[in-house]
Design a protein that fits this description.
Elements lengths: L4 E5 L7 H10 L4 E7 L18 E6 L2 E6 L3 H12 L6 E8 L5 H6 L1 H11 L4 E6 L6 H6 L6 H23 L6 E7 L9 E4 L3 E3 L4 E3 L5 E3 L6 E4 L5 H6 L3 E7 H8 L1
Parallel strand pairs: 1-2, 1-5, 2-4, 5-6, 6-7, 8-13
Antiparallel strand pairs: 3-4, 7-13, 9-12, 10-11
Helix pairs in contact: 1-6, 2-4
């Protein structure tokens, strides 16, 4: 009996070591094909490329076939589902992101979450997977595409194993509607890390651009954030407790409330 097929994308690009770790973990339970951006597409949200030609280069990495696409995560999933795959996958998985994707403003900006949203909009089970990075080590790790930190690699391998278990359970449970399962793993998880059901933390990030000495402005993650509402069951609080966060983003409920 053939195993279910998983389509994997990300927003860190094809050179991400965390992508490799997730694909290798998923291969224990699924057949895997990937469609990922050629370059990093972080914080690009659900951007779709208009007015330019996309290219999709077939390749094999991590022992699995895939496509390197010069577009956004949404482009990658849409092109794979609409043109590149001969049949729909059982699940769409986006990640594993270098850094967390928690709190409402970050979730809405995340290319990782957007890749999973595109899968959900095609009626497929969709999961976004992200890894919190220890304080002060994000920039160096990001510059190395997730490589070069032995301690973080151990953590990331444990997280991808737990994510694979969760994805397999979600697939086995059957269709869950127009939802995205947003999984975030803490900076120091173990193979038995508790996964809590959470909801997005409500924050205001404020100004995201810092002035440069030579003129102009450049993105800078804010050091101070304003909490709109204190909630013990939000995703950020969960990570700070050292547990993994599982937030269900119900797109159908959003549509009903807007109608």
């Amino acid at each position: 009996m053939s195993r279910p097929l998983v389509l994997v994308t990300n927003d860190d690009g094809v050179d991400s070591f965390f992508l490799e770790l997730l694909v290798l973990a998923l291969r224990a339970e699924f057949e895997v094909v990937w469609a990922v951006p050629a370059t990093e597409q972080s914080w690009i949200g659900r951007a779709v490329s208009l007015g330019r030609t996309l290219t999709a280069r077939p390749a094999e990495r991590f022992g699995t076939p895939g496509f390197i696409i010069d577009g956004t995560p949404t482009d990658c999933v849409n092109l794979a589902l609409g043109r590149l795959l001969p049949e729909p996958p059982a699940v769409v998985v986006s990640g594993m992101n270098i850094g967390f994707n928690v709190t409402l403003p970050i979730i809405l900006a995340s290319g990782t979450v957007a890749g999973a949203v595109e899968g959900a909009l095609w009626g497929l089970p969709a999961v976004a997977v992200s890894q919190q990075i220890p304080h002060g080590r994000y920039d160096a790790l990001k510059a190395q595409h997730g490589r070069g930190d032995a301690e973080v690699e151990i953590v990331a391998r444990a997280s991808t194993a737990r994510a694979t278990e969760a994805i397999a359970a979600l697939w086995a449970a059957g269709p869950s509607g127009l939802v995205v399962h947003n999984l975030n793993f803490p900076a120091a998880p173990a193979t038995d890390t508790r996964i809590e059901r959470t909801r997005p933390a409500l924050l205001r990030l404020g100004g995201l651009f810092a002035p440069l000495d030579e003129g102009g402005y450049r993105f800078r993650f804010p050091g101070r954030r304003e909490v709109i509402e204190e909630r013990a069951d939000d995703d950020l609080s969960c990570l700070l407790r050292g547990h993994a966060s599982h937030t269900v983003l119900d797109l159908r409920a959003l549509g009903e409330r807007l109608s």
